[in-house]
Design goal:
single chain, about 110 residues, mainly beta, Immunoglobulin-like, three-stranded antiparallel sheet, 1 helix, 8 strands, globular, signal
């Protein structure tokens, strides 16, 4: 079972904190879709469950971006991403190498 991540949204930066034993992962998240991003999850690819919502009652409007820092203490770079939008649509992407990614964009 996955280790629970703790999230905080402040000054348009998402930060996931638990342990700092592994190198931090950072990337830029873009919402180029036509709907507000209302839920955002990142989970290690080895897990069968989604971690908690990193937007935590917030949202990312179309045309905006935010920085994401993952400090989960894991030594993996491979994660799955899920976004849920205000219009009811959902997007999932699996097996992403976040160490090399640099940025991720949700589109329609």
């Amino acid at each position: 079972m996955k280790k629970t991540l703790f999230a905080a949204l402040a000054a348009m930066t998402l930060t996931v904190c638990s342990s700092a034993y592994a190198e931090d992962l950072e990337f830029l998240l873009h919402n180029d879709s036509s709907s507000d991003l209302v839920e955002f999850n990142i989970s290690p690819a080895s897990s069968d469950d989604w971690e908690e919502d990193l937007l935590a009652d917030g949202y990312l409007a179309p045309g905006y971006e935010t920085g994401v820092d993952i400090v989960d203490g894991l030594t993996t770079c491979i994660y799955d991403i899920r976004g849920i939008f205000a219009d009811g649509s959902e997007a999932e992407d699996f097996g992403l190498n976040l160490c090399d990614l640099g940025e991720y964009t949700f589109t329609d």
